[in-house]
Write a structure and sequence with these properties.
heterodimer, A: 408 residues, mainly beta, Porin, 16-stranded antiparallel beta barrel, two-stranded antiparallel ribbon, globular, B: 65 residues, mainly alpha
Chain lengths: 408, 65
């Protein structure tokens, strides 16, 4: 079995090397274009009793169906194009409580998103540069992302550094998808709080600078470090979140207009023996809302056969509460900022999951190949009682074409 | 402390030839989040205060964070 894995690995390396050689030859110029099509179907369901829409009490029942497709076209070894699009169909019991009308239109929402990008390899500098943009739209949200990526690989391929700068231009007004308007109209507040405008702004800007260092330690081990810096300003509150104060006063959630986030992730992947890979990940996180968090995830893909891999995963997360969080009716009316959103409370969470991946590499319709199918399930539990189930199915196929020299 | 560990780890790196990359080239050895985990990672950004520190989205683009 060990020889089988090594033979497969060496064959892959040899094929990769020979393809490169063919591309570099002055006598027989050929290029290989490849188009990958990947389809993801995800389903998410959660239960809980701390909905922020109803002030930290009430059902958090939620279901999300999220199909998406990604097409990546590598025109040659230099130019790569991709497009990703999908829809998240969200059924939320708590969102329905915005206007107290059961089965109202607010109960079901859909987020449609699209992201497209292009990257180019500057061979001499061993530098890959890329740009991307797109949109994400739902009934009360529009986001326009713009991003630039730079990546540099060392001469021997053992080290790679990359930087990704992203700007999100978000608008929280409702109305774009409403047949009576089809234009951004207003912020949506809980029904009984619509007697005044709680916020004068409706925009949110997020500036993300994420970096990555990938370092090969030895033939079986690779380290990755992901430092990141995020700055957000604008309307960071969710306008339909209620906050109940001591003495029964009620207001719309109010959070500061600026937020700084500093996450730092470290990942170490190790091939143990000939069948098991250990993927270990730790993240430290801190922000100016006074949230400090630690995340630890361990995943151990096991190669049952050369084509079938099973991946058990366990994740633990610990979070200190934001200084602006208090539960239902615990805030004092004189406080400047306040939320009863339990996503910002102190809690521990764990996730247990199992993934199965089958690599087909089975040709169909000539140059097409059905590459892989994978299924992953995870159970998520938070110490405040929230629990969730997540299922994702991935299907991937590709199309490869060799372009030879034109005949004269 | 983390920086010291990182420097020491990087200092202990060895050069790996292309023909020695059979294990490193394995799909499961690739750093970052695999595509099948993307949706779960997104769910975590909604349900937890922390986000980022990987190759996912750290903020913006949704009603969360």
């Amino acid at each position: 079995m060990k020889k089988k894995y090594l033979a497969l690995g060496l064959l892959a390396t040899a094929l990769s090397a020979s393809a490169q050689k063919a591309k570099d030859s002055a006598y027989k110029q050929q290029s290989v274009s490849q188009t990958d099509v990947q389809v993801l179907f995800s389903y998410y369901t959660q239960e809980g009793d701390h909905s922020a829409v109803t002030g930290g009490i009430g059902t958090e029942a939620l279901q999300v169906y999220a199909p998406e497709v990604t097409i990546t076209h590598k025109r040659d070894s230099v130019n790569t194009f991709y497009i990703n699009t999908g829809v998240d169909v969200i059924t939320s019991a708590s969102t329905d409580k915005i206007d107290h009308v059961v089965s109202s239109a607010s109960r079901v929402d859909a987020r449609t998103h699209l992201d497209a990008g292009y990257s180019r390899l500057l061979r001499r500098q061993r530098l890959r540069i890329g740009v991307h943009s797109g949109f994400s739209i739902e009934s009360d949200y529009l986001s326009i992302p713009v991003g630039v990526t730079l990546g540099h690989t060392s001469a021997d391929g053992s080290r790679e550094v990359s930087a990704h700068f992203q700007l999100f231009l978000d608008d929280l007004r409702w109305g774009r998808l409403d047949p009576d308007h089809f234009s951004p109209e207003k912020l949506i507040y809980p029904e009984e709080l619509r007697y005044k405008e709680w916020f004068t702004e409706y925009k949110r800007r997020s500036y993300n600078a994420s970096f990555a260092l990938y370092q090969v330690i030895n033939a079986r081990m690779e380290l990755a470090v992901f430092p990141e810096l995020v700055y957000q300003h604008g309307l960071l509150s969710t306008p339909f979140h209620r906050v109940y104060f001591t003495g029964d006063s009620l207001k719309v959630e109010n959070l500061p207009r600026e937020r700084w986030k500093v996450p730092l992730g470290i990942q170490l992947n190790t091939f143990v023996g000939n069948r098991v890979i250990l993927r270990s990940y730790y993240r430290f996180y801190k922000d100016n809302f006074a949230i400090t968090a630690h995340t630890l995830q361990l995943e151990a893909p096991v190669k049952i056969t050369p084509r079938l891999t099973l991946s058990p995963v366990v994740r633990y997360y610990h979070q200190q509460a934001s200084k602006y969080f208090k539960p239902y009716k615990a805030h004092e009316i004189r406080e400047r900022f306040y939320t009863s959103d339990y996503d910002l409370s102190a809690f521990d969470s764990y996730k247990l999951g199992l993934g199965a991946r089958y690599a087909f590499y089975k040709p169909f319709l000539g140059k097409y190949s059905f590459r892989e199918a994978a299924l992953r399930y995870a159970f998520y539990k938070r110490s405040d009682g929230l629990s969730a189930h997540m299922i994702t199915l991935l299907l991937a196929a590709d199309h490869t074409r060799v372009h030879g020299p034109k005949k004269k | 402390m983390a920086a010291v560990v990182l420097v020491m780890t990087l200092h202990g790196c060895v050069s790996v030839k292309p023909y020695q990359r059979a294990y490193l080239n394995d799909e499961n050895m690739q750093p970052g989040k695999p595509d099948i985990e993307k949706f779960e990672a997104g769910a975590h950004t909604y349900r937890e205060g922390a986000s980022g520190g990987g190759n996912g989205k750290a903020s913006g683009g949704c009603g969360c964070n």
